[in-house]
Amino acid sequence: MIVELQEEKLKERRLISTTIDISGKLRIVNGFRLKLIRLRIKLTLLKVIVKCYRNPVDWIRALRYLIQLRRRFLGNNKVRKMAHINGKYHIGIYTPGWKSKIYEQFIASQLNDFKQITNLKVNRFNNIFFAITKKCALQCEHCFEWDNLNKKEVLETSELHAIVQKIQDKGVSQIHLSGGEPLIKMDALVEILKGADKSSEFWVVTSGFKLNDTNAKRLKEAGLTGAIISLDHFIPELHNKFRHFNDAYYWVEEAVKNANNNNLITALSLCATKDFISEDNLMSYMTLAKELKVSFVQLLEPKAVGHYSNKDIILNNEQIDLLENFFRKMNFNKEYSTYPIIVYHGYYQRRQGCFSGGKKGIYIDTDGDMNACPFCHKKTGNVLDSNFEQNLEILKNEGCKSYNMY
Ligand code: SF4
């Protein structure tokens, strides 16, 4: 029954994709314009390097370091597109947009790993995920916060502020606000954004629930950069089933439309399950993402945490190969240069190791406790504790158990 429904919807979806007008607001840059932008980005890298170091020998070595760092993620391949929104160019959802002070600070912070920078402030973190509420209307199959969902809140709004301030004081390029469903706490969310300093980009990680036009506008005005909206199937009924919520798909389309209309960067996030993974399904998903005019699609591999604890959900090598080949095809092949850019942690982590686990990122849960990442839950002290630094060091030394190369 589900297979028949899927085939029928696939045909419908393909029909739509051949008739819909995708020109106009699509924010993907490619071709010659991309080459020019890349050249200008390289000039920015040189500018940052010269600011960071006095010795010309260091300039050359620092540039080489940045090139090698990029190669560790992508090899000799180049992503054939970039997203252009609000005058900034974005290569991914975990790298701040160029051109901006935040981007320059981010580059200086990477250079600090090559050779310590003494004349500029560098960020301690690249990205921090911060779950600001336990509340959520959905009941997703894969929810990593399942054990805390809809329990009594622990953190007051003043503590949410205090945590953001503390991590911004340490220096952080991006803060991703999640939950539960962060938009359930709209007022607190807006307050956090307005109260934060402008040294970090802010994103929300949302199911799309309540991301109506009014809320999108409020978030944009308060300083939000983008929204990562979860969509686990291109067939509405199957997404709703996965999320145990009849309006889940409706809210995804609403959220993408409203976020796009208010100049927020949009990304769809797919939990690529064993049942979902096939070339056909992935292509249909990307076709929908392109129709919706999102700039990024994030591929997440299921992890045995929260609602997925003790379940047989881990992908096998064949499924991972299929995902990796699809990632390469969509990002590195000219033919697909008008599709959204795929962001795929598993791909980078298998080559580069994990940047989270206290090294360049942490996950702060709804109690304010530090964890290695949203999928590795092992509380290592509260961010507001006076011994935050020691706890961070403990977390960092324990590192990531899954991808411990870095
Ligand atoms: S995964 Fe997100 S949207 Fe789904 S139940 Fe958990 S918190 Fe809610």
From TrEMBL:
Gene3D superfamilies xrefs: Aldolase class I
Cofactor(s) this protein requires: [4Fe-4S] cluster
InterPro entries: Aldolase_TIM, Radical_SAM_PqqE_MftC-like, rSAM, rSAM_sf
Domain Radical SAM core: 122-333
Designated name of the protein: Radical SAM protein
Keyword Iron on entry: yes
Keywords recorded for this protein, A-Z: Iron, Iron-sulfur, Metal-binding, S-adenosyl-L-methionine
Entries under PROSITE patterns matching the protein: RADICAL_SAM
The organism's place on the tree of life at top rank: Bacteria
Pfam families documented for this protein: Radical_SAM (PF04055)
